[in-house]
Design goal:
Layout (H helix, E strand, L loop, with lengths): L1 E3 L2 E3 L4 E6 L6 E6 L3 E6 L1 E3 L12 E6 L4 E3 L6 E3 L2 E6 L5 E6 L4 E5 H4 L6 H4 E5 L10 E6 L5 E6 L3 E6 L10 H6 L5 E6 L5 E6 L5 E6 L4 E5 H8 L7 E3 L7 E7 L4 E6 L4 E5 L8 E3 L6 E8 L2 E6 L4 E5 L4 E7 L9 E4 L5 E5 L4 E6 L10 H7 L7 H10 L22 H17 L3 H8 L1
Antiparallel strand pairs: 1-6, 2-32, 3-4, 4-5, 5-7, 8-9, 10-11, 11-12, 12-13, 14-15, 15-16, 16-17, 18-19, 19-20, 20-21, 22-23, 23-24, 24-25, 26-27, 27-28, 28-29, 30-31, 31-32
């Protein structure tokens, strides 16, 4: 019988990780020493002694190995592997380094124990960022496409066609623009590092959040026209939000964009209205460094206080806490495995923690049927408010009235009722023993 590990210990601090999109037990991690590690998170319960620490590592590659100057000293430090992402079909594994390099590996070879680095590496672009020693900090792959987007530490965003990456730069347009081969679009509109990248479902719009407090919107169709000398500028910028934007997710079937901020507020933009946010959801006591979409109405938030919270968007509501065992370290990344049975999290230590995501799914441990029998599946907002107050939470969470939502959501009452039903069940499953005790009283 097999099960999943509770955590994975890496050989150094992981800065980013990505689950394989087709194989639920595999993940790749980029480490602070420039190494890429691939781990198997599944363990055979019948093998070995219970006291033995399971060895999860499958392969390790020293991809980013440059020595870089250490700011403020005369010493040098190793380059780090800052960004990791599998392609959506699982055939490629991309990494970005703190010296600005971009690598692509054959994912099948990289996930094999006996694999050799020289056989796994498909191409390398170095430097792939504009400027000297400009770290690459974010990678976003596109659905059903060989395009990928990257963000760097200076606020630059680039889109790549990986089919021509690594080839000799014979393109006159690329030579004139000083872009590396394979880079099809390049922008430098933000003044601070790119903290998050997401693309629309049709792949025509790319969104980027930055620590300079602005959301950037890039239209790839207009970028193609602008590159040929036709059409207007291909980007837009939101107003300065006067707060660092640290994370990003597209919600509500593409109608809303949710950004996590340094002050612990979820800033919600309406699609197409990019000047200022249309809604704000306060309540997190610390910065929101990571967001992960559960469904179109529900998010996981990773905060610098080490808590993973489950949050409903419009009507805004805290549903509960999924995990809090990060020893007070900030959560830098959240991700689902391919079966959505696990949530992985990374913070400022050598571990990637794994959380049971079954509590977020319907029918978990039969609790849903119990809730329906007790008639709790039709909880109204007023009842939910009383339940939150009774739970004794220290966080300053407040449920928002339905009337506070944007007017463009007013015609979805039936859909909102279904959402409330599903999330009320989630909230019941996420209750702690203390909250259940007070409910019984």
């Amino acid at each position: 019988m097999t099960s999943f590990l509770d955590s994975i210990e890496c050989s150094a601090q992981p800065l980013d990780f990505s689950f394989h999109p087709k194989r639920e037990n595999l993940l790749a991690a980029g480490l602070v020493d420039g190494t890429l590690e691939v781990h198997d998170v599944r363990v055979d319960d019948a093998e070995g002694d219970e006291d033995d620490e399971p060895d999860s590592i499958l392969s390790s590659f020293a991809l980013h190995t440059k020595l870089l100057p250490d700011k403020g000293t005369t010493k040098q430090k190793l380059e780090s592997c800052r960004a990791v992402s599998f392609s959506t079909d699982g055939t490629r594994l991309y990494t970005g380094g703190s010296a600005g390099g971009l690598c692509a590996m054959d994912a099948e070879r990289a996930c094999t124990f006996s694999s050799k680095p020289q056989k796994s590496l498909l191409w390398r672009v170095e430097p792939a960022t504009e400027g000297k020693l400009n770290p690459m900090v974010a990678i976003q792959t596109f659905e059903n496409s060989r395009l990928l987007a990257t963000g760097d530490d200076d606020g630059g965003v680039r889109v790549w066609d990986e089919r021509i990456c690594g080839q000799k730069n014979n393109s006159s347009s690329n030579r004139n623009s000083k872009r590396p081969n394979g880079c099809v679009f390049s922008w430098k509109e933000n003044d601070d590092y790119i903290s998050g990248l997401e693309h629309s479902q049709d792949g025509n719009t790319l969104l980027a959040t930055s620590a300079d407090g602005r959301l950037s919107i890039f239209d790839l169709r207009m970028a193609r026209e602008a590159a040929s000398g036709k059409g207007q500028k291909s980007y837009r910028l939101s107003d300065d939000q006067e707060d660092e934007l640290l994370s990003l997710q597209i919600m509500k079937n593409g109608r809303k964009v949710v950004c996590g901020t340094q002050e612990g507020v979820l800033s919600i933009f309406s699609w197409g209205t990019w000047g200022d946010c249309s809604d704000r959801f306060p309540g997190h006591p610390s910065s929101i460094d990571a967001l992960l979409k559960v469904d179109e109405d529900t998010l996981l938030t990773g905060s610098s206080d080490g808590f993973i919270r489950v949050v409903q968007i419009q009507p805004d509501k805290l549903l509960g806490v999924l995990g809090d065992n990060h020893e007070g370290f900030p959560i830098e990344k959240l991700d689902f495995n391919s079966s959505r049975s696990l949530v992985g999290s990374v913070c400022h230590d050598n571990y990637i923690r794994l959380w049971d995501a079954g509590v977020l799914q319907e029918g978990h441990d039969g609790i849903d049927s119990e809730v329906e029998e007790e008639g709790k599946s039709q909880i109204h907002p007023e009842q939910s408010n009383r339940a939150v107050k009774a739970s004794g939470s220290d966080d300053d969470w407040e449920d928002m009235d339905d009337n506070d939502s944007d007017s463009d959501d007013g015609d979805n009452d039936g859909e909102d009722t279904e959402v409330a039903t599903a999330n009320d069940k989630r909230k019941e499953r996420l209750k702690t023993d203390t909250e259940k005790f007070f409910d019984d009283l």
